[in-house]
């Protein structure tokens, strides 16, 4: 047992454990923590994601082996400090007055001088000038200074113990033991909070935690969601939080500069009083033992009025919906489930993005020029069919100008990851009216008959077949590129004929550009699988703020440990330890200087001390 305690309390062993803890903790900076398994599989692959789960690397700071290692570090370093400090302090306070001249000559910085009686009398004065503590008299003196360095040594190692204790306090070991024992169960992420069992709920006095609190503007909440493995626990807060207002502050160029939540705290322990707090991205707020951080923002249930565009735009079906609420629909005879998932008030892209990167890349803007153009709000929704296949649709609410023309733009992303954009041409009134009327005219046999009456016989014979092919499968149903060009030319003439009937006196070039865009839009819609497109007429936005709420009783302990660490480092750097001996020898007076470790500057220090002695007082 003694040998084991000596091993655990040895400094090399404590340093080794500290290195292992540091390496393990650094993994938390490389592997994103507390992410669902599906997200980790998409990022790292199935093998690595499963390995991370087995090793606990997805939540390393709460992994059992990491907490055990941290506790082991605390015990080992604490035992080391306990065992080493008394002896180290006794050594620091001692003068080693027993050393004789022969032992001192073996030190790296020594000098032997012939001193006069007056110079010998200067020894105490030189020692006081150098702030030395000494014992002895005459020419047998032993001096020391810089003993506070030993206190710095103790403080730095004690700081590791204190910081580790703070980390263990914030890890909430009681909660981890309850999870390991099966007394608590993380609920699946898709399970709503109202359906959680008592085994997935925590009381307001359950120790340290960090959770998410989502509040719609004007709403209140008193429960935070704690991410645990691939699920979550619901922690009741000791107070109720009300979101009075949420706003996004922007730079002059339009980029967001800050997200600010104005909240009010209602404390049952202090009834009748609401305590206002302001929470921003880099300005957390505190109430009691709770700390509030601005984590993000979301849609709080914006209401949407619009219509579903069916058959490529030929038909429409009215819609009244709310973000976050699912709806069962029957569109074109197909049963679908639609869920509006989010409303985004701004979409910033570089002003030259459409010209330099292609129109579709403008909507996937990354790091670009500081000056940006706002494409306006967008709405995101998911359409799920009865087979479970999902299509994510992004609707840009306002017309988007590309290459000098206005379009209604829709982004489509399938579950397989394939993404594309559809753009439907907007008329001069800012609507899809001309586009829809053009499609209706192409579907009307009277339009085809009127155009074929004055057309060459070859065209009159080929056009019905070409139009039928186009309406069934778009341009891809025609075949090779040459056939597509012929089809486009025939359909463009027909469409231009129909468009000119609606716009007498308009320039043919403008009409040709419009009908070309319309035909391409319809073909791309067919190629995308004939999805239902949402035309948004009106949005009543409701913002939601996502706050991080934490209770960290170990934070004060960690701050104390950091203060000890800073103090210890300062003492070790600013208070170098030195020892000085003066002994009478046959050759005169021997003066030796030593430090706690070999230093190149010791001979210079010794020379400066002897110069003080050699300055004999008058």
UniProtKB/TrEMBL annotation:
Its main location: membrane. The chain crosses the membrane at residues 12-31, 60-82, 151-169, 556-575. Residues 11-606 form the ResB-like domain. The keyword Glycosyltransferase does not apply. It is a multi-pass membrane protein. It is found in: Membrane. Keywords: Cytochrome c-type biogenesis, Membrane, Transmembrane, Transmembrane helix. PANTHER family: CYTOCHROME C BIOGENESIS PROTEIN CCS1, CHLOROPLASTIC (PTHR31566:SF0). This is Cytochrome c biogenesis protein ResB. It comes from Pelomonas lactea.
């Amino acid at each position: 047992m003694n040998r084991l305690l000596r091993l655990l309390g040895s400094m090399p062993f404590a340093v080794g454990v500290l290195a292992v803890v540091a390496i393990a903790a650094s993994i938390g900076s490389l592997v994103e923590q507390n992410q669902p398994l599906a997200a980790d599989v998409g990022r790292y692959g199935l093998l690595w994601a499963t390995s991370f789960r087995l090793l606990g690397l997805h939540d390393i700071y709460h992994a059992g082996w990491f907490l055990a290692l941290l506790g082991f570090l605390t015990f080992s370093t604490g035992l080391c400090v306990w065992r080493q400090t008394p002896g180290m302090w006794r050594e620091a306070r001692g003068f080693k007055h027993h050393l004789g001249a022969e032992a001192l000559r073996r030190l790296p910085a020594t000098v032997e001088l012939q001193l006069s009686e007056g110079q010998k009398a200067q020894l105490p004065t030189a020692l006081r000038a150098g702030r030395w503590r000494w014992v002895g008299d005459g020419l047998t003196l032993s001096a020391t200074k810089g003993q506070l360095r030993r206190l710095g040594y103790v403080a730095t190692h004690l700081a590791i113990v204190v910081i580790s204790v703070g980390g263990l306090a914030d890890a909430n070991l009681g909660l981890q033991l309850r999870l390991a024992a099966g007394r608590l169960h993380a609920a699946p992420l898709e399970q709503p909070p109202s359906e959680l069992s008592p085994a997935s709920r925590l009381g307001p006095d359950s120790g340290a935690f960090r959770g998410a609190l989502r509040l719609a503007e004007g709403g209140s909440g008193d429960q935070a969601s704690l991410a645990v493995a691939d699920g979550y626990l619901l922690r009741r807060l000791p107070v109720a939080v009300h979101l009075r207002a949420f706003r996004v502050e922007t730079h002059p160029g339009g980029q967001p500069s800050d997200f600010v939540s104005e909240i009010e705290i209602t404390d049952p322990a202090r009834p009748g009083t609401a305590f206002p707090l302001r929470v921003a991205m880099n300005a957390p707020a505190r109430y009691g033992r709770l700390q509030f951080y601005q984590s993000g923002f979301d849609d709080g249930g914006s209401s949407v009025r619009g219509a579903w565009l069916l058959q490529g735009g030929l038909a429409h079906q009215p819609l009244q919906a709310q973000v976050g609420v699912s709806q069962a629909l029957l569109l074109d005879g197909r049963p679908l489930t639609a869920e509006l998932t989010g409303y985004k008030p701004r979409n910033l892209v570089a002003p030259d993005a459409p010209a330099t990167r292609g129109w579709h890349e403008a909507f996937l803007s990354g790091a670009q020029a500081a000056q940006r153009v706002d494409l306006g709000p967008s709405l995101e929704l998911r359409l799920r069919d009865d087979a479970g296949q999902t299509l994510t649709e992004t609707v840009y609410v306002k017309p988007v100008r590309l290459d000098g023309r206005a379009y209604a733009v829709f982004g489509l992303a399938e579950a397989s990851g394939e993404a594309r954009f559809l753009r439907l041409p907007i008329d001069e009134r800012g609507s899809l009216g001309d586009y829809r009327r053009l499609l209706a005219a192409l579907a009307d046999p009277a339009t085809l008959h009127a155009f074929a009456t004055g057309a060459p016989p070859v065209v009159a014979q080929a056009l019905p077949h070409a139009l039928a092919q186009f309406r069934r499968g778009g341009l891809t149903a025609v075949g090779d590129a040459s056939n597509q060009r012929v089809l486009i030319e025939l359909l463009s003439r027909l469409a231009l004929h129909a468009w000119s009937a609606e716009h007498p006196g308009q320039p043919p070039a403008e009409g040709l550009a419009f009908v070309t865009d319309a035909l391409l839009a319809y073909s791309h819609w067919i190629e995308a699988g004939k999805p239902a497109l949402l035309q948004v007429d009106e949005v009543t936005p409701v913002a939601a703020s996502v706050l991080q709420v934490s209770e960290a009783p170990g934070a004060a302990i960690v701050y104390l440990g950091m203060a000890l660490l800073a103090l210890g480092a300062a003492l070790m750097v600013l208070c170098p330890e030195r020892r000085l001996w003066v002994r009478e020898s046959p050759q005169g007076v021997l003066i030796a200087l030593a430090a706690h470790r070999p230093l190149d500057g010791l001979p210079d220090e010794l020379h400066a001390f002897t110069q003080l002695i050699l300055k004999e007082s008058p």
